[in-house]
Amino acid sequence: MMMKKNKNRDNYMKVLLEFKDKNAVKIITGVRRCGKSTLLDLFIERLLEDGIKEENIIKMNFESIEHDDIKEYKALYKSIQSKISNNDKTYLIFDEIQMVKHWEKAVNSFLVDFNVDIYITGSNAYLLSSELSTLLSGRYVEVKMLPLSFKEYLDFNIFETNMTMDEKFQLFVKNGAMPVISEYEHNRERIIDVLEGIYSTVILKDVVARNKLTDALLLKKVVMFLADNIGNITSSNNIGNVLGNEGDIENTKRNPASRTIDNYIKYLENAYIFYGVRRYDVKGKQYLKTLGKHYIVDTGIRNMLLGYKEMDRGHVLENIVYFELIRRGYEVYIGKIGENEIDFIAVSASDKKYIQVTETMLGEETRVREITPLRDIDDNYEKIILTSDRIFTGMTEEGIKIVNVIDYLIEEDYKN
Question: Roughly how many angstroms between the first and final C-alpha of the chain, as a whole number?
């Protein structure tokens, strides 16, 4: 058996340490159970190791019954005011603070009234509301947290000593990357139970309850459609037509309104379970308003919902690569060039890449389909095809690099 190396999230910890003691609230966002609370626990350990006194660290988890009496910002302010005991810097760490009504008003007052450094987690994009932006203008930074990368997954889990890297990657694809599943040693039944619990909590607390939804069946249909169509171009009209034609949506004699579908998708995005990606016209140099794509935050949740299917592996690889690009600091778009599509345009402050993702490059038709859009781009930024094939590893064709997708996922390229 291989021994676990560690359970740190080094890239996220690095960001927290870089912003430590800076005049900005650190807001850590991401889907439930992706590791936000654990990251803050590790950060507290680091503070203690650096000599910060325990009384100068205040952590509150607002999903705990311990803080059930703190429902609104004034109660939060009074509670913290009573706990700050000296003039030394106090580190305030708030878990799931969106449970407190108008919490941003209290946070703003903490910055004004006390010598504090503030860290916040939340599982809903409500945290970044316009009211927050107004109150804390220029004084907060968002740390976007995701489930484990494949490289982190290798560190978190134990594997049989004779297991190949391809076999490990297959487990990653099948079981997903929620940190908690490492506790179950690849036991598929237990992992499914855990993922069902995570998904149900996200849907009930961060989608249904927060948005006061009453049509649970329609929400489920939208979730299943998006999960089944990762990597496909969709629209709310198209989704409504498909769901309406299925004929089993209660109290509906016509297709669901596109506005309703749009709202449900937005709620799912706000809960960080689906991520929408815009399209960009490379030649026209403009963003397109319609027909984007969606990716699911964790392939394990997708497989729990739909059942594991080998046939759509190409789209699953695309899903995995999308989130890897996000981890590496890129803004990601879908590219359109003429009648062809580029899977990803990845842009950072200092870099741009064009990326195609395909299960295989074998076969002339597939090779032409993947190379043609990249070849038609007339700039000098890096162009890459990521594939499961190893026979083409290290090859370059017409200036386009062909890279094995697993090699790409475990390389040390986090410079952005």
Answer: 35
Rounded-to-5 percentages of helix, strand, coil across the chain:
45, 20, 35
Edge-to-edge strands of the sheet including 25-29?
Answer: 57-61, 90-95, 116-122, 25-29, 140-144
DSSP state of 185: T
The three-state secondary structure class of 336 is: strand
Question: Do 134 and 374 touch, CB atoms closer than 8 A?
Answer: no
What is the C-alpha to C-alpha distance for residues 80 and 92, in angstroms, rounded to an integer? 9
Q: Letter for the amino acid at 17? A: L
Token pair of 200, please? 């149900």
Cα radius of gyration (the chain): 23
Q: For the chain, how long is the longest CA-to-CA vector?
A: 71
Residue 62 CA, distance from chain mean position: 22
pLDDT along the chain (416 residues), means of 10: 60 96 95 96 96 96 94 97 91 94 93 96 85 81 96 95 96 97 95 97 94 93 96 90 71 67 95 94 79 94 92 91 96 91 94 95 90 92 94 86 96 56
Task: Read off the pTM.
Answer: 0.92
Please name the residue that has the structure tokens 């650190």.
26
Residue 107 class from Cβ within 10 Å (0-12 exposed, 13-18 middle, 19+ buried)? buried
CB neighbour class for 177 (10 Å; exposed up to 12, middle 13-18, buried from 19): buried
Q: Output the six-digit token pair for 218.
A: 């329609």
